[in-house]
């Protein structure tokens, strides 16, 4: 993507507070001194077999970037590609119902959408939210001395890959679905109440990929304690079965010089840390003195997974360090 963005013309606009140059998947446009729009969109092919769950996951995933920046979603629009002639319309109803229910849970309003005839189903949403221009949480504010908190387990990419290969354990489908349909709203509310330095949601680049972006944007080095990182229990079995998603392999290859991994960290676990996530949790960086307060608030708001997984250091020779 960087190649493409760098070859596009630049049309500077002083109202654009976060734009394409930062490679963020959400943009922010200032309307007035106290209001800015936060906009994002995401869509993908089915990742689970249940159409209602797929719709819910697509919506939770599309909303996630708004929550990661500390915004409040206001409106949503459906994006749908669908083989109308081949597939039962009831499936379409279930997908859109899943999306609509999640949007309703977020407090936003579904205001429209667009459908296109296509050979393969693709569904997602564009989301518009609001945010105070001075209260935007970005991935650029992490500071040495901060600690890192993660709010969902890793491994959805491996589990989705195992679903597609028909090799998945039933309990993994239900655990991963439960996690992916969960909005990052409660986590975002807690982080705004406590006040944090930086945040990113964990999606297609995996934990290490999004952490790398945070390290580069904040000009610091992040270290992770591998054994403390929450993962779906036994999802490493899919690494051993050769079911690592292609995008996860690419992240690992692309980032190999930016990451220093202690040889004592299990090889399979390393692949989970690079695993591409769908509707993953928030990675929050905040001063050590406030971490107890954040964890208490997260749990109080019903966030199931709350783990302190790493620390922020002055910029060193690599972006990321992983120790056992
Ligand atoms: Co996104
Ligand atoms: Co994101």
CATH H-tier superfamily of the largest domain: PurM-like C-terminal domain
Q: Architecture of the largest domain, CATH level 2?
A: Alpha-Beta Complex
Count of DSSP H/I helices: 11
CATH class of the largest domain: Alpha Beta
Overview of the molecule:
This protein is of the alpha+beta class and 324 residues long. The protein has two domains: 2-135, PurM-like, N-terminal domain (60s Ribosomal Protein L30, Chain: A, 2-Layer Sandwich); 146-323, Phosphoribosyl-aminoimidazole Synthetase, Chain A, domain 2 (Alpha-Beta Complex), CATH 3.90.650.10. The chain is built from eleven helices and 13 strands. The strands form two sheets. The protein has a seven-stranded mixed sheet with strand order 8-11-7-12-9-13-10, sandwiched between helices. Strand 1 and strand 2 form a beta hairpin. The longest helix is centred in the first third of the chain and has 18 residues, at 51-68. The protein binds cobalt (II) ion (2 copies). One cobalt (II) ion binds at residues 25, 65, 68, 201, 203.
């Amino acid at each position: 993507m960087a190649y493409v963005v760098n070859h596009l013309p630049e049309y500077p606009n002083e109202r654009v507070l976060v734009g394409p140059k930062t490679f963020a998947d959400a943009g922010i446009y200032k309307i007035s001194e106290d209001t800015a729009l936060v906009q994002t969109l995401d869509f993908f092919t089915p990742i689970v077999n249940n159409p209602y769950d797929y719709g819910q996951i697509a919506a939770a995933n599309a909303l996630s970037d708004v929550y990661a920046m500390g915004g409040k979603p206001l409106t949503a629009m459906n994006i749908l590609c669908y083989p109308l002639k081949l597939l039962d319309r009831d499936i379409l109803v279930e997908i859109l119902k899943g999306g609509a229910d999640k949007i309703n849970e977020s407090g936003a309003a579904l205001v429209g959408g667009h459908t296109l005839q296509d050979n393969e189903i693709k569904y997602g949403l564009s989301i518009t939210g609001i945010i105070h221009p001075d209260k935007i949480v970005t991935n650029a504010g992490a500071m040495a001395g901060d600690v890192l908190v993660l709010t969902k387990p890793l491994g959805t990419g491996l589990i989705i890959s195992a679903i597609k290969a028909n090799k998945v354990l039933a309990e993994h489908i239900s655990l991963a679905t439960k996690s992916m349909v969960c909005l990052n709203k409660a986590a975002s509310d807690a982080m705004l109440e406590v006040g944090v330095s930086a945040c990113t949601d964990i999606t297609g680049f995996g934990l290490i990929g999004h952490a790398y972006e945070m390290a580069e944007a904040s000009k610091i080095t992040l270290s992770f304690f591998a054994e403390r990182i929450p993962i779906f229990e036994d999802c490493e079995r899919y690494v051993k079965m050769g079911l690592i998603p292609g995008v996860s392999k690419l992240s690992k290859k692309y980032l190999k010089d930016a990451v220093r991994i202690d040889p004592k960290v299990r090889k399979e676990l390393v692949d989970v840390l690079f695993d591409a996530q769908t509707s993953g949790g928030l990675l929050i960086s905040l001063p050590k003195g406030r971490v107890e307060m954040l964890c208490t608030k997260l749990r109080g708001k019903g966030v199931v997974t709350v783990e302190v997984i790493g620390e922020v250091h002055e910029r060193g020779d690599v972006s990321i360090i992983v120790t056992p």
